[in-house]
Amino acid sequence: MDDRLYPLPGAAPVPPEVLARLKAAVGPRGVAEDPAEIAPHLVAWRDGWRGEVPLVLRPESTAEVAAIVRICAEARVPIVPQSGNTGLTGGGQPHMGGSEIVLSLARMNRIREVDPLNDSMTVEAGVILQTVQEEAARHDRLFPLSLAAEGTCRIGGNLSTNAGGVQVLRYGNARALVLGLEVVTAQGEIWDGLRSLRKDNAGYDMKQVFLGAEGTLGIITAATLKLFPRPRDSAVALVAVPSAEAGIELLALMKAAMGETVTAFELMHEICFTLAAQTMGHEDPMPGSEWRVLLQVDGPGPQGKMAEALEAALGEALERGIATDAVLPASLDQAQKLWRIREDQAEVQQRAGAGIKHDISVPVSRIPEFVAKADAALAAVYPGFRPCTFGHAGDGNLHYNPIRPEDWTDAAWKAETQAINRIVHDLVAEMNGSITAEHGVGRLRMHEMARLKDPVEMSLMRRLKAAMDPAGILNPGKLLA
């Protein structure tokens, strides 16, 4: 059976009397029962995850979330928390069989407070990431979490999956951007941990338990986020480098020359640009260069200072042979065109043919070794595959997505998923890396994580789950096999 289409083992449909209690808890505006309304909550936008539920609940307040959880805990009905439904590992989709309910946080979309002097903002879980960014900008602040889905993903899901994005190098993952949380526990209790403190040494840091837990330990309903001074000056460059090794040397040079102003550093294989041109009409600014780096530096100003410093650093890179060419856009529009090539990679790959997705991280210094060994290992078994490799080299995270050879069918290539995953993930494990750097585990990586992760660590995770959700109602069949 396809594991994207299976029911929860031993689960039964939700009893009608429980459905009636759940509907009463949120009122008519908080319930979706029409199949057309439910449908978008049941499918993933990529890779075929889908399920069945009798209804979708859309609470408007934390109190309503807590009421839903109490009813489900009493009746042992599983809950699938859902935010923007933009995840990539099947963590937000229910199983088949109608034994679960989807709890959508989309209506909980209020910005509760902005405190510019404390550089903090408190928002509900259903606020769209781009809205958080825009609200911060209205107060002359920056919320730096940035990813391709920012116009549709919601902050609760970002925090539940510990999202990454292009600015992790400077600002850290989602968990580094959180000061406090409000969470509904598996028993339906409300934990108000919305403290806006930078220093709090009074016991366990409970918010970290829920960040990155993918809704398996509690349901995040609100968060107090860190804000930063808004950069006044930026500069972008696309740099050709002779090898992946040179790309990492360029990173070291840029950090030494420009310090923490280096905000983003994306290493991309030539194939990413070729396919972007073929499938979406993007212009390739420097054809023929096997590896390129797309980087951005941000600073306090004055205008033009970052561009001058970047040009000087790149001049040194060219002199030393670390770089062979560089393009510095002359306008914001040109810079945005370069970034769109990077941001469109998910759609580019969908159009180019079946690809086997990997979201891995290794120590930054070992990125070239990983790429060389993975390419060689796959080429030995699958000659002609296209190594669409790109990602956040500044923090060791690569999206290593081999695309089928041009003479293969999509179906034939997808049939090799498990074999290709094993080759790539075993290599990652040898390098003491991670098989999921920013996308989360969900259902996609659940069994591979159990295979490769330290047994003691897996035991600790299972004990934590059993202690905090003994009935196993929160997002079951995800993260922990």
> How are the strands of the biggest sheet laid out side by side?
15-12-14-13-17-18-16
What's the rounded overall pLDDT mean? Answer: 95
- Strand residue percentage: 15-25%
How many structural domains? 4
The CATH architecture assignment of the largest domain turns out to be 2-Layer Sandwich
Structural class: alpha+beta
Q: Number of DSSP helices?
A: 17
- The N- to C-terminal Cα distance equals 17 Å
The CATH first-level class of the largest domain comes to Alpha Beta
The CATH topology name of the largest domain reads Uridine Diphospho-n-acetylenolpyruvylglucosamine Reductase, domain 3
Number of E strands: 18
The 3D shape can be described as globular
Helix content: 25-40%
Description:
The structure is a single chain. By secondary structure, the chain is an alpha+beta fold. It folds into 4 domains: 16-106, 2-Layer Sandwich (Uridine Diphospho-n-acetylenolpyruvylglucosamine Reductase, domain 2); 111-229, Uridine Diphospho-n-acetylenolpyruvylglucosamine Reductase, domain 3 (2-Layer Sandwich), CATH 3.30.465; 233-346, Alpha-Beta Plaits (2-Layer Sandwich); 353-439, Alpha-Beta Plaits, CATH 3.30.70.2740. The chain contains 17 helices and 18 strands. It has a 7-stranded antiparallel sheet with strand order 15-12-14-13-17-18-16, sandwiched between helices. α8 (244-258) crosses α10. The chain is globular and about 75 Å long. It starts with 15 loop residues before the first helix and ends in a 13-residue tail after the last helix. Its cofactor is FAD. Residues 49-230 form the FAD-binding PCMH-type domain. GO terms for molecular function: catalytic activity; FAD binding.
